[in-house]
Specification:
With about 230 residues, this protein is mainly alpha-helical. The protein is about 70% helix and about 0% strand. The chain has 11 helices and no strands. The mean pLDDT is about 85.
């Protein structure tokens, strides 16, 4: 075989088709969307890979090739719900986290955090609650639930430390106290109670959370918004 022939074969082997990459990404999105809808609507344990393939209109082997077995699908669905992208994104690389850290005051940090939260919760809350339910009987789901809960706790402590650095937190609250108070109100359960069950708008929920955290956490609360003053918002 001549050098020229080998070079041409090598070029073909390295050839990357943008169209093929786009098709692969579209297939991945369809699989993850189908998995999400079924995990939320039918339950993780009751959903089979065949169900997901049928919903996504692909072969079962395509599901495995795209995202792996069902536990891997659950993780991918959760991670992409958190990130809002096609891939998992570490907390420190998320846009709203950068805005929180760049904010100069504790009140501004709280506002930036809450804005990020209300953007995430509509896509995350149903998946998170489906994982919580599956964790009661499925060992893999239980392990993933503990992992995600541990990550949330660590992120809350980092947020508390960031607030503490402004010098504006109440001195009688430890960072652990602050993290626990934020944890108790930023979870999908609280969002579901008010937005899902009681019909609050995301804007009203955000105003409530900012007001509550300013009052609870800051030594001298800033002028609060009144979420009840405009119940139609």
């Amino acid at each position: 075989m001549s050098e020229g022939t080998r070079d041409r074969q090598g070029e073909r082997g390295r050839y990357h088709s943008p169209r093929r990459a786009e098709q692969a990404l579209a297939t991945r999105r369809a699989v993850l969307e189908a998995a999400r809808d079924l995990f939320v609507g039918k339950g993780y344990l009751a959903t089979t890979v065949a169900d997901i393939a049928r919903e996504a209109r692909v072969a079962v082997d395509t599901v495995y090739a795209t995202a792996g077995r069902k536990p891997a699908l659950l993780r991918e669905v959760l991670e992409t719900a958190i990130s809002g992208t096609d891939q998992a994104v570490p907390a420190e690389q998320r846009d709203y986290v950068a805005r929180v850290r760049a904010a100069a005051t504790a009140g501004a940090k709280i506002e930036a955090y809450v804005e990020g939260l209300v953007e995430i919760q509509p896509r995350l809350a149903p998946v998170y609650l489906a994982l919580r339910d599956a964790a009661t009987t499925d060992p893999y789901s239980a392990a993933l639930w503990r992992e995600i809960s541990g990550r949330r706790a660590a992120n809350m402590r980092r947020f508390a430390a960031d607030l503490r650095a402004t010098g504006e937190l109440r001195p009688d609250l430890s960072d652990d106290d602050v993290a626990d108070l934020v944890w108790s109100m930023n979870g999908p359960e609280y969002w579901t109670l008010l937005v899902g069950d009681r019909g609050w708008t995301p804007r009203r929920f955000a105003d409530l959370l900012v007001d509550a955290w300013r009052r609870l956490l800051l030594a001298v609360p800033e002028a609060p918004a009144d979420p009840a003053s405009n119940p139609g918002t």
